[in-house]
Predict the structure.
Amino acid sequence: MQVVAAPIPGEVTGLAGGFIYGPFFGIILSTIGLTLGSFLAFSLSRWLGKPFVQKVVRKEIFERFDYILKLSHHKGAFLVFLLFLIPGFPKDYLCYILGLGPISFKEFFIISTAGRFSGTVLLTLGGAFIRKQQYREFFLLIGIAIIIVLICMAYRDKIERLLQKLSPINKTPPEDKK
């Protein structure tokens, strides 16, 4: 429900999964939960349409990523996968936005699950480290994650512009030379 309602930050639920269930079951259960929540958000968006999504997704986020809706489901799949990999990217909102586009249910299911997996693993391991009082490993993991997040935040606009440039909708065919 964290993806659909988002009252609790996903990072908290990821750490809790690792703390409560350990690394193996924490990763499995968190992945199942994120996958089901992402799929539910996508499905609600698909079935209830743009007026619903505009109530759920803040206007500035919707406008910032509306170019995603113009992607073909095949050409834009890699771009969408990359967006799911970016730390700090509003992935929950992305699920709603993608529900308005041409991407298929099957393709969304695969991309969102695979794209969210690395973050799920990191958060679950962090929770498991805390449970076992392996604070050195936990802080090392957090340090690496913070460095990655800071780099992504520092270059966020450049990353987004690069992804927009890679987007097939922004490529114009070359003019005929006569």
About this structure: DSSP finds eight helices and no strands in the chain. Residues 2-169 form one domain. The chain has a mean pLDDT of 81.
